[in-house]
Design goal:
Length: 548
């Protein structure tokens, strides 16, 4: 057993925090995730750095804000020189391994410019967010330009599921009563059972691959962090039997929305509500059709995690493995008349986060529910600490959660930040917003959620008096609301003007910096007496340097 713990970092794509029973869902019971929460800390105020897959994940994998790493949208390459969690862990002699999805797009132009062969060891790491890819699968194949044929496709074919696109034809399609194959890309088919047995589904397959990695890691002997990144419950919304009909309309919670929201005068919000996916999920029959499938996918995920955790117990991995469960963002499911994600209401930007640390130092916090403001970028320094990596505050912008996990002092945060680049969207086209202005930023201090919308009025919610975020106070003339907006805008400006890209400013570089005079550069001294009084160095001992 390693002296350092291993880390199993589980991420479920598009998993809402409130669709787990430990977070209060009244019908969807997730006993295995709940049990993990009892073994560790459950965070109730964890926020992602963007409500979209790609930039959210790039923040998680770098420990840095979106404005810092620059990958602002799905398909935006992470620049070749951006340090990642995998890079930091390798420096400490630990493996950083991927099993599942990253949504990473490689900076091919940057690698070509630097002469890096994409097939080389360095090139592969630059193409995989710094991870060692045990198995990568972004869940779009093979018709998507972002991913070609995958190992999962090979797996399906090996079990008799033969087609040009087994991922879609079997894992993400269903059969009607007449045996006709129907695609789950169409929401009307969400209630069908997926055209594949549960044991061969994406969720079960990736669980098996995580077990295979851990068996491999045991033989290797090095400490490791495994990022087990599930594709589901992200769309296409379809789940194998028996999960496809476990839930129905009786289990659907009423949507969080108001008529006033539909009558908004805010141009950007009006454009959101007029977007196709929002108009679709604002219809009750769509919600009633999709949400039972979404719930079934989460139930299936929980059952597979139960299978994984039991296997880890049996094999002895649990005693020395920190387990973290989270999501990269949520899903509106018709709340606020919206669908998918892409904005900042709680169901989109707040995520579940549970961390169970098996070390004795964490015994005092087992079952703790923490209301601290947490950001997804906090996971990187937490894992670095656990695996023996030195802190790198000149690079990492997240904050180590170990003080909370171990019940000690040292963690504090006044607000969380999230960003979204919507230049690709229907909203930008509807409003004719240029790329450089199609940007929103959220700052939330635990009560007030302020959203800066470039070119438009801000949006403001008071979650103390309006926890469902139904009343926009962004243009309210109430003195208290005016003052709050000023305060939040000032906090956002302070955050934006901090150093975000000074990643070469290591402690050694900073310690080596001297004043110009002490470096031998004489600027503005009248005479030797003034120089000696200022620097404490005898002028006769100085050998002036040339111009800089």
């Amino acid at each position: 057993m390693n002296d350092r713990p291993n880390v199993l970092w589980i991420m479920a794509d598009q998993l809402r925090f409130d669709y787990l029973s430990c977070y209060g869902h009244p019908h969807l019971h997730t006993p295995h995730i709940d049990a993990l929460a009892q073994r560790g800390v459950r965070f109730t105020n964890a926020y992602v750095q963007s409500p979209v897959c790609g930039p959210s994940r790039m923040s998680a994998y770098t420990g840095r804000y979106v404005r810092s790493h620059g990958s602002t949208w799905n398909g935006m390459p992470l620049r070749v020189g951006e340090p990642t969690l995998g890079d930091h862990l390798r420096d400490a002699g630990a493996r950083a391994v991927l099993v599942g999805k990253t949504h990473m797009i490689a900076d091919k132009e940057g690698m070509a410019w630097l002469g890096i062969d994409p097939a080389s060891e360095i090139g592969v790491r630059r193409s995989e967010c710094g991870f060692e890819p045990f198995e990568r699968d972004d869940g779009l194949h093979p018709d998507s330009p972002r991913q070609n044929w995958s190992a999962y496709d090979d797996y399906l074919v090996s079990h008799g599921y033969q087609s040009d696109n087994p991922w879609e034809d079997f894992a993400n399609s269903g059969l009607d009563d007449d045996g006709e194959q129907l695609s789950a890309w169409l929401l009307e088919n969400s209630r069908l059972a997926a055209n594949v047995p549960e044991k061969h589904s994406e969720t079960a397959y990736m669980t098996d691959r995580a077990m295979a990695f851990m068996e491999d890691a045991a033989a290797d002997g090095r400490p490791w962090m495994c990022h087990l990144s599930y594709i589901k419950p992200h769309w296409p919304y379809i789940v194998p039997a028996p999960y496809h009909d476990m839930y129905d309309e009786r289990h659907i919670i009423d949507p969080v929305r108001s008529d006033a929201e539909r009558q908004t005068e805010h141009p950007l919000m009006a454009a959101y509500l007029d977007a196709r996916v929002c108009k679709s999920f604002s219809r009750d029959h769509v919600r009633k059709h999709v949400i039972p499938a979404y719930m079934g996918l989460i139930k299936q995920l929980d059952d597979n995690l139960g299978r994984l955790f039991a296997w880890m117990d049996e094999k002895g991995f649990s005693d020395n493995t920190i387990i973290a469960v989270c999501s990269d963002h949520g899903d509106y499911m018709g709340d606020h008349w919206m669908g998918d994600k892409d904005f900042y209401h709680e169901m989109a930007v707040k995520v579940p986060m549970i961390i169970a640390d098996p070390r004795k130092d964490a015994d005092a916090t087992r079952g703790l529910v923490s209301d601290d403001l947490i950001e997804m970028i906090d996971l990187a320094p937490t894992f670095m600490n656990a695996l023996g990596c030195e802190p790198k505050p000149h690079i990492i912008e997240g904050r180590d959660l170990t003080p909370i996990l171990h019940g000690t002092e040292g963690f504090a945060r006044g607000y969380v930040i999230s960003e979204h680049d919507y230049h690709w969207s229907e909203m930008a086209r509807t409003l004719d917003v240029p790329q450089e202005d199609a940007h929103t930023t959220m700052i939330f201090d635990g009560r007030w959620k302020y959203i800066r919308c470039e070119g438009f009025d801000p949006i403001l919610f008071d979650l103390e008096t309006d926890p469902q975020e139904l009343i926009d106070l962004g243009t309210s003339q109430d003195i208290a609301h005016i003052e709050t907006r000023k305060r939040m805008e000032a906090a956002l400006l302070k955050w934006a003007t901090q150093h975000h890209t000074r990643i070469t400013a290591t402690p050694a570089v900073l310690a080596g910096q001297k004043t110009a005079a002490k470096a031998g550069i004489l600027i503005g001294f009248w005479d030797a007496e003034e120089y000696e009084a200022t620097t404490g160095i005898a002028f006769a001992d100085l050998k002036p340097q040339g111009p800089r």
